[in-house]
Q: What sequence folds into this?
């Protein structure tokens, strides 16, 4: 644990003494090509670190005559680039299917040293107990994770989630966990904001009780007076823009824009012209992964991947680094101010946290050569070398509370067998994008069945109360706790995929081309995860027993199992660019246009009404 650098007068004196060279630094980096995100340049120089904080930066062009800082350890960068650690502006750790301590290993190996994490996935399943687990587990690892308070649990007031967290619940949690909640997570209930709904406004007001006082956003295609209302409510950023015009509309109203590059949503290439048209906008644009599969993170990277794509799109590498570091720090107020020096970050400058990357080049083609978190070496050449503490009794207890979250009713084959109605609303999948379309075909050619089954206990209770009557098991739940419909563009052949991951309420979603495999896949889910069934047999699975969202195994093992599942799904006809996992889990999300499936049926998210 790094001691606070300047939380007392003595600490401040020690920081100044180190900056003046009166006391030795812990580490001195020499022969470095410093990526100066303030000066927007690369300049040779030296950097000194003491107690996890940068205390000195000497640029060779102006400070050549200044002696090296005395230091316990000298790191020769041998002409490599020294850059600030990356900051992920918005993500859901659960969507990587691994717990926070494992996520930290993976993120640090790719150069992400700070993550702004919204844990609304696990909170939608397990309530604020889920958030307690995420915070406690994250403490075990050296990644700096800033946890946001989920603002919309459930995503819409009438969603059938596993929890309902009110503004009063949020305040009570923060009273019990002082200083552990950084800000308010993405405000997805845009209709509640537009209507000035009292509970929605009360939730926004809870941001005052957080460390930063900030509110993150989620506002796809919001414009005009609605956008004015959203920005006026104090929302600072949006990661849902899919075209430059939409992004500029929000940027011009004072919001930061996050160029998202995840596994399902690939928005960076489309949004890059926003920056290329005027480089001054880069200061208000940053990067986010949102949802990133473990295999993608390990193989292609995270924010480093976003930097690589930005450079490929024509953005200068130093600008790209700035967007992945300083811009995000400025968005969340982490770059300056009265906070302890260990909290200030986003640049290589005195008085900033020593989150540092040694890079072979600025192409971002490979993982960083070395990664330092608060001055400590934590990763080398894509391999985590830091320390993760053993799980405490508290962590083990909280982890146990997340198990056994999948409660499914009895389901007969009849539930999965239903006819197509010509002209009915059908989800139109848009590969590489969380947004969907809505079509009304006259035949079922090329379509697949899609169902959403409530899994938090309501369906079980209704069935026990006699909802099925004299009908087959589960038939009395259709339209109440089992939604049924059709999807176009999810091209599975001779099989079905079922999942307990379905944003944001995480009910069981199943897509298939025949009722038998759909039933087999659902019945094989166990404690949660993904199941692929073909020919009446389970052919691939990814087990996620923690809330039906996360594995209890190492990231590498989860990534290997994820890759095997993807390969099996490809063999079943799901072709790129559609991702068989990430492309499916957004189909129930009712806060992104245009058509989604809910436990009651097909839902038009533009009109906020059920589609006929």
A:
């Amino acid at each position: 644990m790094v001691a606070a650098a300047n939380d007392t007068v003595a600490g401040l004196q020690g920081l100044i003494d180190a900056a003046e060279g009166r006391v030795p630094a812990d580490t001195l980096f020499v022969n470095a090509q410093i990526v100066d995100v303030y000066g927007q340049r690369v300049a040779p120089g030296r950097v000194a670190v003491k107690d996890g904080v940068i205390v000195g930066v000497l640029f060779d062009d102006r400070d050549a005559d200044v002696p090296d800082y005395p230091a316990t350890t000298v790191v020769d960068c041998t002409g490599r680039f020294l850059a600030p650690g990356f900051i992920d502006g918005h993500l859901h750790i659960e969507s990587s299917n691994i717990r926070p301590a494992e996520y930290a290993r993976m993120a640090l190996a790719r150069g992400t040293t700070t993550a702004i994490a919204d844990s609304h996935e696990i909170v939608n399943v397990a309530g604020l107990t889920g958030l307690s687990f995420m915070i406690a587990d994250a403490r075990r690892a050296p990644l700096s994770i800033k946890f946001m308070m989920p603002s919309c649990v459930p995503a819409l007031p009438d969603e059938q989630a596993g929890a309902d967290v009110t503004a009063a619940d949020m305040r009570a949690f923060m009273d019990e966990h002082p200083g552990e909640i950084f800000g308010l997570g993405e405000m997805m209930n845009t209709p509640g904001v537009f209507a000035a709904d009292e509970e929605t406004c009360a939730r926004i007001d809870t941001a005052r009780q957080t460390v930063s006082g900030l509110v993150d956003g989620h506002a796809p295609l919001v414009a005009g007076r609605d956008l004015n209302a959203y920005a006026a409510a104090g929302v600072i950023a949006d990661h849902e823009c899919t075209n430059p015009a939409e992004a500029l509309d929000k940027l011009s109203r004072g919001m930061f824009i996050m160029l998202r590059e995840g596994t399902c949503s690939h928005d960076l290439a489309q949004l890059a012209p926003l920056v290329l048209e005027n480089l001054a906008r880069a200061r208000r644009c940053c990067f986010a992964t949102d949802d990133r599969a473990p295999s993608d993170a390990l193989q292609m990277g995270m924010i480093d991947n976003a930097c690589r794509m930005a450079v490929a799109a024509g953005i200068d590498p130093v600008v790209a680094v700035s967007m992945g570091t300083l811009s995000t720090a400025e968005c969340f107020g982490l770059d300056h101010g009265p906070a302890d020096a260990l909290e200030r970050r986003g640049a290589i400058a005195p008085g900033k946290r020593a989150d540092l990357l040694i890079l072979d080049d600025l192409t971002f083609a490979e993982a960083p050569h070395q990664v330092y978190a608060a001055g400590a070496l934590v990763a080398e050449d894509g391999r985590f070398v830091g320390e993760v503490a053993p799980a405490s009794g508290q962590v083990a207890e909280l982890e146990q509370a997340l198990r056994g979250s999948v409660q499914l009713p009895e389901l007969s084959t009849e539930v999965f067998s239903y006819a197509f109605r010509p002209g009915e609303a059908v989800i139109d999948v848009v590969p590489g994008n969380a947004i969907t379309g809505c079509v009304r075909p006259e035949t079922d050619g090329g379509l697949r069945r899609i169902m959403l089954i409530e899994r938090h206990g309501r369906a079980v209770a209704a069935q026990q109360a006699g909802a099925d009557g004299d009908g087959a098991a589960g038939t009395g739940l259709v339209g109440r706790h089992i939604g049924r419909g059709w999807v176009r563009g999810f091209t599975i052949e001779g099989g079905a995929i079922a999942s307990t991951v379905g944003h944001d309420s995480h009910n069981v979603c199943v897509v298939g081309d025949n009722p038998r495999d759909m039933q087999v896949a659902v019945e094989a889910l166990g404690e949660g995860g993904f199941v692929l069934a073909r020919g009446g047999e389970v052919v691939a699975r990814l087990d996620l027993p923690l809330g039906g969202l996360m594995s209890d195994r190492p990231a590498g093992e989860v990534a290997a199992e994820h890759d095997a599942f993807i390969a099996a799904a490809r063999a079943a006809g799901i072709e790129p660019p559609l991702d068989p996992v990430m492309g499916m889990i957004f189909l129930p999300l009712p806060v992104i246009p245009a058509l989604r499936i809910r436990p009651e049926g097909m839902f038009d998210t533009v009109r906020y009404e059920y589609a006929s």
